[in-house]
Amino acid sequence: MNRHLLPRFRDTSGHLYAEHARVDRDASAVVITDADGRINVPAASLCVLFLGPGTSITHAAIGLLAEVDCLVEWVGEGGERFYASGSAERTTGNLLHQVRLWVDPEAHLAVVHRMYAHRFGAPVPAGDRLEVLRGREGLRMRAAYAAAAEQHGVAWSGRSYRRDDWATTDPVNRALSAASVALYAYCQAAILALGFSPALGFVHTGSTRSLVFDIADLYKAELTVPLAFATVAAGTDEIDRQVRRACRTAFDEAHLGSRLVTDMRAMLAMDADAPAVEPGLWDAS
User: Fold this and answer.
1) Across residues 203-223, what is the average pLDDT?
2) Local confidence band at 89 (pLDDT 50, 70, 90 cut-offs)
3) CA-to-CA distance for 180 and 80, rounded, in angstroms?
4) Cα torsion 239, 7, 251, 110: sign
5) I want to staple 23 with a disulfide (CB 3.0 to 4.6 A). Which of 57, 199, 245, 281 is the partner?
6) What is the DSSP-derived secondary structure letter of residue 204?
7) CA dist., res. 188 & res. 121, Å (int)
8) Which of residues 165 and 11 earns the better pLDDT score?
9) Three-state SS at 10
10) What is the DSSP letter of 157?
11) What would the pLDDT profile of 237-269 be if each residue is shown by its tens digit?
């Protein structure tokens, strides 16, 4: 059958991915049927069900998943894009903790400093303002682009693209954008499943995905930037598709899911006086 356990944020049987299949209900089980056959999955064992391309789901199945508090997420092939989610009755501990940090100016800035310290690989001076840190980050990313271009022998004239003129965007900028989309999808899936709000960011603000951008930026220089340049250097004619496939492999090999849980806990000071991430949601069982 064309389904598998999505490369997981931490090893647990609670996350299932399906594509080109019909999802229905049989008593207390979710039934997944495709051209190869049918399987029954106890609904109570699921924390998140990812629905990929070509998947349909019945009203009865949604009702069952709501009863057992399973989050449903509609994603692209292999999870490389995020489209929508159906809210489950998550406990509010993590969200309330995030809100407390977000509304407190001092705590908010402390989160910003932890995020930049993670990116820089060194502590951030306590007095550094956000504008200063953004300037340092810009220099770091420009250096990352230049290093990747030199390593892979790809011409590079700077980060530039237009959403309304995608076809004429140069290959490496298209690759970088495609890789970012895949990374954002991965991060948003984790943030929602852990019960945080994607809209309440600390470095980024004003978007429904502000926290997604914050978390994704922790990994771009390490993962998506070199991957994008390597894909272009390979000379493929299907850059967007090849980048998405390469991202799935790279995220899995880098154990990104497990790192997302650990890093979000650290950035949001979850190990101090905050409630733990809900058991079973991307965490080790």
Assistant:
1) 95
2) low
3) 10
4) positive
5) 57
6) S
7) 24
8) 165
9) coil
10) -
11) 788 889 988 998 899 899 888 899 899 999 999
Kindly tell me the number of DSSP H helices and DSSP E strands found in the chain.
9, 9
Closest CA to 216 of 197, 191, 240, 196: 191
| Distance from C-alpha of 75 to C-alpha of 193, rounded to nearest angstrom | 13
> Identity (one letter) of the amino acid at 243?
V
Those residues whose C-beta lies under 8 Å from the C-beta of residue 254, and which sit 6 or more positions away, are 219, 222, 223
* CATH number for the segment(s) 3-86: 3.100.10.20
pTM: 0.75
Give the number of other Cβ atoms within 10 Å of residue 235's Cβ. Answer: 8
Task: Assess if CATH 3.90.950.20 describes domain 93-267.
Answer: no
Q: Which tokens is 169 given? A: 């965007």
Q: Which of 116, 223, 143 lies closest to 180 in space, CA to CA?
A: 223
Q: Distance (Å, rounded) from C-alpha 74 to C-alpha 77?
A: 10
Q: For residue 188, give both structure tokens.
A: 């948003």
* CA of residue 46 relative to chain centroid, distance: 19
Distance of alpha carbon 195 from alpha carbon 276, whole angstroms: 11
Give domain limits for the chain.
3-86, 93-267
Closest alpha carbon to 211 in 226, 219, 200, 222 = 200
